[in-house]
Each structure stands twice: as structure tokens, then as C-alpha cells.
Write a structure and sequence with these properties.
458 residues, 6-stranded antiparallel beta sheet, single chain, 5% helix, mainly beta, Methylamine Dehydrogenase, Chain H, 31 strands
Length: 458
């Protein structure tokens, strides 16, 4: 059983709606959602777990998609409208595969069939961003290789998952390119160059479907945002604002205490991105960190709305911050799931039961997230700006597939026709009326009512 009681911080709650420990297998990794299915990758050589989430309160394992030998199916993305899933594989040992594998389904997202693949040869890919080009009917995958040098970014045209092909490459940054995100329109990129820092780039040639598109850096090395001695692991733009959220991933053996916090970065001047504030948890305090349980207390993957940051934080679980004030983010609520003793783990990460890893995914107002040890959780957030989550049909930090739910239709109500106010009945008058007669009739009525009437006659 997963113990994941809601924890309240400054203002909010995270309610556990549903969960599955995936057989306590452990080593869970990337998460994708499509239709009634969730897909959970593996940090090891394990298979991809297929989970039926048609009832979010009771997610149920529904199948497995085997991994290639010697290979980790680490990252996943789905394109629900196209009925396909892409798996990013990289070799863990000799004989492993460095590739993108594509799978399709017809009516049932649990029944996947191989569609196509793209092989990177001996060079392992690391992460990918799925960008839907609505203007030209394309799907592009921006794949980061995290090895430095030429070709550290490879852009794959996956519009036909049966025949993906290389569209362009880029490289030459100071550090190894860990990840990339784009503005929804595809015209600006956010490059997380690890110790090289955060760079912004003009990606408009990709958005315009130019032949032989090129990426043009907007940030010079001297202007990059860096977090020494840490890194920039992920950088995701805040919807509708000149801000990005960056994370800093530090393992116990690569920096350790106080591990890596997250930052809000002003990107209004692409040549000089600058931090406006830090987002951290208690264990990121140098005074607290030495006494923390052996774990990995570091920020990892963010999914954002205009005023909320949902961040997976390894041993720190899921963290929610109010980012409405760029200079003063507020920690709202956290959830650190535990209770499952996983059959397999990663000793490099420490021994905490909580090890929340994937990008959170918002779908139909609920939050889905994968934990390395605890499995798949479905959460509901209540608190400041909750309407930004409850109003979303879909959002994730590693694609531009964000979609809002339709506005609620007012419930039909039965209305009774309005009845006009009754008007005093006026006597019908026909022809001429003797005024004296009318006066006498009025006087008689008043006398009957007990009134004293003086009648003046001419």
C-alpha cells in the first residue's frame, strides 16, 4: 500500500485520488498518457508498464511492452491524436540500443504494435521534447544527446511514425545539452546546457518549416544563467509570461548536500536571462541537509501553469509552488509518497522510499506522476490558483500539447413564464356618464366604509 497522506504547507492540499505500485517493481521512469492508458518507462532494463486509467481512482496494470536487451526505455512521449507512443532507448551495456521506437494502436491504447524506429548508432540519446506544428501538420522531436559537441541536439521529424527521419542537428555549446523546451509556437527554445547554463535560441526556422532549418543562439556564453556548482537540468517556459523555471539535479555523489533547488528566471532579455528567485525545500537548507535521511533531495522535472509550478523532487516527492510573484514564490503543498518496498532500486540515489521522478502530467484536472519506487500516483490539487489545473484537459512540461477543458455548459433550468402583476379592474364606460350619479355612488361606498362624506351640490 502506498502511504501518501495529503500534506499541507502554506496554502493547499494534494489528495491521492488513485495509485498503483506496478507490482512494486521499482526503477520506474518516464510517464506518458493517451486515451485510457498511462505508460511508465524503466530506469533499468525492465519493460514499459501499460496502465488502464479509465477510472483514475483505480489505475490497473494492463500489460507490458518489453525493452530491448541491455537497454533502458527511459523516456516516453505520446501523441494521443495520432494514436502513437515513442520510446527513447539508450544502451546500458554492450548490445544495447540507442534509438527511438514508435508504437501505434487503433481503438485500444493497451494493444500496441510496432510502427517504426530511428537509430542513433553508438551515440545514446538522453531526453526529448515533442513539438506539434499545427500550422504545417507536423510532429517534431527535439532530442538532446547530453554528450557535448556537434550534433548534441538532433531534431527528428516524426510526422509519420512509421518513417521518422532526421531534420536537423545543432551543437557547439560549452556543456553537454541535457534538455530543451520550446514556446508553444515553436519560435523560441530554452536549452539546458547542464554546467554550461541556460541559453535561449531562435527556433523560428523550425516553426516556419524552412528548408534545412537552423537554430540561432540568442544568449552568448557570457550571458548564460548558471548555478555553480550546480547545473541547469531542465528549463520550461511559464505559459504567457516572460519567465522560465529551471531545475538543478545533483546526486549524492555529484555535489550532494544541499543538493539542487529550482529557480525562476526572467527571460524578457534573451541575451541575459537572470534569476528572480529560488524555490527550495527544507532539505536544501545547508543547516538542515546534513541531518536529512540518505536520499537525493534535488529538483528534477517541472510542469507549469501561469501561476503554479509542479515539480518532481526525487526524495522530496511532488512540490507545488505559487509563482504568481516572480520575486517571491511560495511553497504551497508537498506530497512524499511511501509505503512500498520496491524489488529493485538505484543505490546511487540513496535509501528514501520516496523518489518522485517524472514530469507531472495534468489531465482533466488531475495530476499524474511516476515515482521510481512507489509507482504511479493520481493526485488532485486544492488551493491557490487551483482553477488553472482543474481547467486543463492536458499539460506536461515536455511537450506543447497543452489543451484546456471546454467551458462548463450551464445546467438547463425550468423557468415558469412570468405572470404580469394584476392591474386594478377598470369599469367599462359606454357612452356618456352622468357625473352626479358617479359622485353619489362614490359617496355611498365611503359611507358604507364608515367615512364621513360631505357632498356639495350645485
Amino acid at each position: 500500500m502506498i502511504l501518501a497522506a495529503p500534506v499541507q504547507a502554506a496554502d493547499g492540499t494534494l489528495e491521492v485520488v488513485g495509485r498503483t505500485d506496478l507490482g512494486a517493481r521499482g526503477l520506474n521512469a518516464g510517464l506518458a498518457l493517451a486515451g485510457n492508458c498511462a505508460y511508465v518507462g524503466s530506469r533499468g532494463e525492465g519493460p514499459i508498464a501499460i496502465v488502464d486509467v479509465s477510472d483514475p481512482a483505480h489505475p490497473a496494470p494492463a500489460g507490458l511492452l518489453p525493452a530491448a536487451a541491455g537497454t533502458t526505455p527511459r523516456e516516453l512521449r505520446a501523441y494521443p491524436d495520432g494514436h502513437w507512443l515513442v520510446v527513447l532507448d539508450y544502451a546500458l551495456r554492450a548490445g544495447g540500443v540507442n534509438a527511438l521506437r514508435f508504437y501505434r494502436w487503433d481503438a485500444d491504447c493497451r494493444q500496441l504494435t510496432a510502427a517504426g524506429s530511428y537509430n542513433f548508432g553508438s551515440r545514446p540519446p538522453h531526453e526529448m521534447y515533442l513539438w506539434r506544428d499545427a500550422a504545417h501538420g507536423r510532429i517534431l522531436l527535439f532530442v538532446t544527446m547530453f554528450s557535448g559537441g556537434a550534433g548534441d541536439l538532433q531534431v527528428i521529424d516524426a510526422s509519420d511514425p512509421a518513417a521518422p527521419h532526421l531534420l536537423a542537428t545543432a551543437g557547439g555549446l560549452p556543456g553537454p545539452l541535457h534538455s530543451i523546451a520550446l514556446d508553444p509556437d515553436g519560435r523560441k527554445g530554452y536549452l539546458s546546457d547542464w554546467t554550461g547554463g541556460l541559453y535561449l535560441a531562435d527556433t523560428s526556422q523550425f516553426a516556419d518549416a524552412a528548408p534545412s532549418p537552423q537554430l540561432r543562439l540568442l544568449t552568448a556564453s557570457a550571458g548564460a544563467f548558471r548555478t555553480p556548482p550546480g547545473n541547469v537540468h531542465s528549463a520550461v517556459p511559464v505559459p504567457g509570461r516572460q519567465l522560465a523555471v529551471t531545475t538543478d539535479e545533483r546526486y549524492p555523489g555529484t555535489g550532494g548536500c544541499p543538493y539542487g533547488s529550482a529557480h525562476l528566471v526572467d527571460v524578457s532579455d534573451p541575451a541575459h536571462p537572470r534569476a528572480t528567485a529560488t524555490m527550495a525545500i527544507a532539505e536544501n537548507d545547508p543547516a538542515v541537509c546534513p541531518g536529512a535521511a540518505p536520499g537525493t533531495w534535488t529538483s528534477h522535472n517541472p510542469t507549469l501553469t501561469a501561476n503554479l509550478a509542479l515539480v518532481s523532487w526525487y526524495s522530496g516527492g511532488v512540490q507545488v509552488f505559487d509563482i504568481s510573484e516572480a520575486a517571491h514564490p511560495v511553497s504551497l503543498v508537498q506530497l512524499r509518497p511511501s509505503g512500498v518496498q520496491a524489488h529493485a532500486g538505484d543505490p546511487a540515489l540513496g535509501s528514501t522510499a520516496t523518489m518522485t521522478w517524472s514530469y507531472p502530467i495534468i489531465r482533466n484536472g488531475l495530476i499524474y506522476v511516476a515515482d521510481i519506487n512507489q509507482g504511479l500516483l493520481v493526485l488532485r490539487y486544492h488551493g491557490s490558483h487551483e482553477e488553472e489545473i482543474s481547467g486543463l484537459a492536458f499539460a506536461e512540461g515536455n511537450s506543447n500539447l497543452t489543451q484546456s477543458l471546454p467551458a462548463p455548459t450551464p445546467s438547463p433550468t425550468t423557468t415558469q413564464p412570468s405572470t404580469p402583476a394584476r392591474q386594478p379592474t377598470k369599469p367599462a364606460v359606454s357612452g356618456s356618464v352622468n357625473p352626479a350619479l358617479l359622485l353619489l355612488l362614490l359617496a355611498a361606498a365611503l359611507v358604507a366604509a364608515g367615512a364621513v362624506v360631505w357632498v356639495h351640490r350645485r
